[in-house]
Amino acid sequence: MRDTLAPRMQNFRDRCVELGMPLTHQRLVIYEALASTDEHPTPEAVFERVRKKIPSISLATVYKNIRSFADAGLLREVSLLHESLRLDANLADHHHLVCERCKSVTDLPHDALAPVRMKINPPDRFQVHRFNVEVLGLCARCAATDS
Amino acid sequence: MRDTLAPRMQNFRDRCVELGMPLTHQRLVIYEALASTDEHPTPEAVFERVRKKIPSISLATVYKNIRSFADAGLLREVSLLHESLRLDANLADHHHLVCERCKSVTDLPHDALAPVRMKINPPDRFQVHRFNVEVLGLCARCAATDS
DNA sequence: ATAAATGCAAATCTTTTGCCATCTC
DNA sequence: GAGATGGCAAAAGATTTGCATTTAT
C-alpha cells in the first residue's frame, strides 16, 4: 500500500486538474485517507481519519467529495447495492445481474458462469462459505437511454 | 416462479412451526410477497405490495419479519454491505473477502480465483461491464468467537 | 473576479426500538 | 392463559441539501 500511495496522489492531482476540480486541502486529505488504507472504510470512518488532520472538517464535505471522486472514477463502491436492503427468497445457487445505472437486480442461473472457485487457500485463515457474484453493467432499458 | 410458489409456502409454514414462530396472517402475506417475485424488492417495495392485501400493516412489521425470515434462513440479502457505503480506492482488478458476521472487507488478488467469465450470452441484452465477486464467510477473528 | 467548495444546520431517507393491545398456540 | 407479534410513534443512523462564507484558479 505504502509504495502505491505516491503515484495515486499524483494521479489524483492530475485527474482533478483534468476535470477542473479545485485542489482543496480537504480534498487532498480525504483522498489520502482513502488511498492509504485497504480497510474499505465507510464515509464515517474516513471522516474520523480526516478529522485528525483537519479538526474543523464537516461530515457533509466528506460525503460530497466521496461522491465527486466516485463520479470521477477515482474510487469505487465495494457494492452498488448499499442504498437499501434488497431481498431474495430464491435460495437456489445463482448469480445476479446488477444494472450500474438503475440498480435493478436480475437472476442469472449459476451455470451461466464458469465455475467460481479459489485457486489458493484464502489468506488470514478466512473460512469460505460461499461466493456472491454480481455481474455489473447496463440493463437494456438503461442502455437505450444512455447519455 | 409461479410453479415454485406453493412448495415455498409449504416450506415456509414448516419452518415457522419448526422454529416455534407463530404463523400470523401478516407473516404469510409478507413471505408470499417475497416468494412470488424475482425482482429483489426493498423492504419498502414489499410493504407496498403487502399493503394491498392488509391496508393496516405497518412498515415496522415488515422490517421485523424480514429480519426474522433472514435469521431463519428463509431469505437472503442480495448484498451484505447495504448498511453503509464501503469505499475502495484500489482500482486494480481484485475481489473481496466479506465476513458475514462483522462485515469486514479484505482484498483478494484477482488471480486467487479461477477466471470469472460468462459461458452464455447474458439474458435480456444486458451489457456486461465487469464482475464483482464477494467471497463470503467468517474472518479469523469472528471464527474464534463463533457461538 | 469568478466559479466552485466548505461548514453548518436542517431535511430526508432507511431502519430500529419501546410499548401496549392483540393474536397464535 | 402465556408468550410472541402487530401497530404506532418516537428514536437512531445514514445521507443529502440549502445557503452564507471562504477558497482555488
Low-confidence segments of chain A, given as residue ranges, are: none
So how many helices of chain A? 5
Which structural class fits the helix and strand makeup of chain A?
alpha+beta
The CATH topology of the largest domain in chain A turns out to be Arc Repressor Mutant, subunit A
- Sum up the overall morphology of chain A in one term: globular
Task: Tell me the layout of helices and strands.
2 copies of one chain form a homodimer.
Chain A: H1 2-19, H2 25-35, H3 43-53, H4 59-71, E1 76-77, E2 87-88, E3 94-99, E4 105-109, E5 127-138, H5 140-144
Parallel strand pairs in A: 3-5
Antiparallel strand pairs in A: 3-4
Helix pairs in contact in A: 1-2, 2-3, 2-4, 3-4
Chain A binds a DNA duplex (25 and 25 nucleotides) through residues 20-27, 42-44, 56-61, 63-65, 67, 83-85.
Could you write a compact summary of the structure shown?
The structure is a homodimer of 147-residue chains. Chain A is an alpha+beta fold.
Structure description:
The structure is a homodimer of 147-residue chains. Chain A has 147 residues and is α+β, with helices and mostly antiparallel strands. The first copy, chain A, folds into two domains: 2-87, Arc Repressor Mutant, subunit A (Orthogonal Bundle), CATH 1.10.10.10; 92-146, 2-Layer Sandwich (Dna Ligase, domain 1). Helices cover 39% and strands 18% of the residues of chain A. Chain A has five helices and five strands. In chain A, strands 4-3-5 form a three-stranded mixed β-sheet. In chain A, a hairpin with a 5-residue loop joins strand 3 (94-99) and strand 4 (105-109). The two termini of chain A are 36 Å apart. At the A-B interface, helix 2, helix 3, strand 1, strand 2 and strand 3 of A face helix 2, helix 3, strand 1, strand 2 and strand 3 of B. Strand 2 (87-88) of chain A pairs antiparallel with strand 1 of chain B. The structure holds a DNA duplex (25 and 25 nucleotides).
